Amino acid sequence: MTQTILTVDDSRTMRDMLRMALAEAGYNVLQAEDGVHGLEVLQTATPDVIVTDINMPKMDGFGLIEAVRKDSRYRRVPILVLTTESDAAKKLRAKEAGATGWIVKPFEPTKLIAAIRRVAA
Amino acid sequence: MTVDTMAAIRQTFFQECEEQLSEMEMGLLAMDEGAADSETVNAVFRAVHSIKGGAGAFKLTALVQFAHTFETALDHVRSGKLAPTADVMKPMLRAADVLADLVEASRDGRDIDESSYASIAADVKALTATNEEDEVEEAIDFQPSVIDFEMPAIATEPEAPPMHEYHVRFAPRPELYANANEAALIIRELSRLGSVEVTCDATAVPTLDAIEAEGAYLAWDIKLSSEQPIEAVREVFEFVDGEAEINISTDGQPGVSDADIAALLAMALGGSSGSESEASAAEVSNPEPEAAASQSEPQPETSAEPAATPEPAHQTAQTVESPKAAAVPNQTTIRVEFDRVDRLINLVGELVINQAMLSQRVVEANLAGSSSIVIGLEELEQLTREIQESVMAIRAQPVKPLFQRMSRIVREVADATGKQVRLKTDGEATEVDKTVVERLAEPLTHMIRNAVDHGIESPEARIAAGKPPEGTVRLSAAHRSGRIVIEISDDGAGIDRPKVRASAIKKGLISPDVQLSDNDIDNLLFLPGFSTAATISSISGRGVGMDVVKRSIVAHRDFFTAWTRFDVLDELATNSRGP
């Protein structure tokens, strides 16, 4: 069955890159522009994996992860955070918030897909 | 991804950069005025961060590096380590200009000589230099979880790579499952590296009544035969590092790498099993201390409580609905090529003419007596007018980006002349036809330069005159009775009319005995070749200033009258010369 990925990023460039890479790999892609929007999308869909940026307006990635983990419907959905370089501090914080793993920006499509495969059933 | 899609995304990136640069500039100016809340600082940081992220994807190295320097300084402001004082904001604003230049150069495929902005980069770097100790501490704090997971390029190995035998002990803790990782998926991933033999260790499973639903009781011993180096094996466990006991060891098979032997030696020296020995093994096997140690390092003692974070900015970002965000409603927009809008506008122009001709024909054909035709025509006329207005509204744009460019001009001229000047803008949301906005840039630049160069006095002269040392140039836009009025004023010394008159006589622009009203003298400023500056500077004094202003405005006035009834000239004549 086609897996659905929800990407949450305020940068249109990044959204486009994620959409292209994921669609090319055969995933169904849902997109949101910030954490609040991401939670709204979750009201109507249950993605197999969430890929989220950290720095976003309204609700950042940490906030989104915490909100998702608190919701019994979605707490088992794997969440990958997008971080620039190997920002260890951000990874650690994301982990504490409940992130499943991370993807380093700028990402190679193959790395992105590999990371998703590693967490998606 | 194909070349085409990358090119399309590249275009999106630069469009987005423009928006982010604009947001950044607006935020920085607010910070400079001390009017910035934490969300504003966050927004500026995000804008620069986003530019850096996108630039990285397109390998725009110079842009990435500078954005990184800038972002680091902004992060210090965001986290409260650096106060946005005037001394801090000045280099920040200059850095914003450099960033804009770098974005533009990257977009056009040009290179910018790094030396041209090296001093600004150094100034920005210096802002965070005092905090270096903190940085080092932080770096040490977080080192354990940094993982270098660059896969070695297998393709470059000439012959069949040697096989490794790995023994992996994998015992997940409840956190692993709580973060939605799955032991089975990790074992599946491991199986992609080679052949695996998995043994489940269920000895830790308690009796049924003692089982916790969300506990983690199973462990696995995995034998992996793989051509992949140990780094590839570690990478599989990258996400669950700290959420499980992970112990990777290798057997000395023929053809193991030096690193593996070193790891093995370390294993032997370090004692039996357990996470400690593995950590030391990893350190020996990898020359980069950063990349080592990642395995089975216990998670630092941090509860899931976000309040423990050193970055309070994130919390505010989540909970505080900032006034700025509230003021700018999130409107849905689409991007349309300018050509399409232009074509539509031309077509509507044709429609208007056609409709007028039709009315004329009806009169000529003596059909005006037929009331149903007249009513129909009136309705058509009304509709045509509404269509025309709506279409023109598509091309209307706020003057904000234009005003932001002017703020840069003020900074540059102020720096070059040693003056202290602040640009205050008003009515930035005023919408003007896009083509007008573009054509306003040149005259406005001249006016602003003049205001700073000629209008505003040096700080010393201002203090002597009982004024604050910092001068103010005001730039405002407003709709006034169907016109768009752009006003520029300054709190400088005003026009020195005797000097203007004397200068004009000296240059032979007027004869010495002519009688001139104040208004006439003021208009001399707009004569070609007029200049009062004693010496020619790079900023002004060549006498190509105000006449350009006048020409651009007069040239465009007729052109734009039909659409916007644009009229700036009268306003310039009465408002450009300060109180």
Relevant terms:
heterodimer, A: 121 residues, alpha/beta, Rossmann fold, five-stranded parallel sheet, 5 helices, 5 strands, 45% helix, globular, B: 579 residues, alpha+beta, Four Helix Bundle (Hemerythrin (Met), subunit A), Alpha-Beta Plaits, 4 domains, four-stranded antiparallel sheet, three-stranded mixed sheet, disordered C terminus
Write the layout of secondary structure elements.
The complex is a heterodimer of chains A (about 120) and B (about 575).
Chain A: E1 4-8, H1 12-24, E2 28-32, H2 35-44, E3 49-53, H3 61-70, E4 79-84, H4 88-97, E5 101-105, H5 109-119
Parallel strand pairs in A: 1-2, 1-3, 3-4, 4-5
Helix pairs in contact in A: 2-3
Chain B: H1 3-32, H2 38-57, H3 61-78, H4 86-107, H5 118-129, H6 132-142, E1 164-172, H7 174-178, H8 183-191, E2 194-201, E3 219-226, H9 230-236, E4 244-251, H10 258-270, H11 275-285, H12 313-319, H13 323-327, H14 338-364, H15 371-395, E5 396-398, H16 400-417, E6 421-426, E7 431-433, H17 434-455, H18 459-464, E8 471-480, E9 483-490, H19 497-506, H20 518-524, H21 546-564, H22 569-575
Parallel strand pairs in B: 6-8
Antiparallel strand pairs in B: 1-3, 1-4, 2-3, 5-7, 8-9
Task: Describe the overall structure.
- The complex is a heterodimer of chains A (121) and B (579).
- Chain A is an alpha/beta fold and 121 residues long.
- Chain A has helices spanning 12-24, 35-44, 61-70, 88-97, 109-119, and strands at residues 4-8, 28-32, 49-53, 79-84, 101-105.
- Chain A has a single domain, classed as Rossmann fold, CATH 3.40.50.2300.
- In chain A, strands 2-1-3-4-5 form a five-stranded parallel sheet, sandwiched between helices.
- Chain A is globular and about 30 Å long.
- The model of chain A has no long low-confidence stretch (mean pLDDT 86).
- With 579 residues, chain B is α+β, with helices and mostly antiparallel strands.
- Helix content of chain B is 54%, strand content 11%.
- Chain B is built from 22 helices and nine strands.
- Chain B starts with a helix and ends with a helix.
- The model of chain B is unreliable at 131-158, 253-258, 271-330, 534-544 and 555-579 (pLDDT under 50).
- The interface between A and B is large, with 50 and 53 residues.
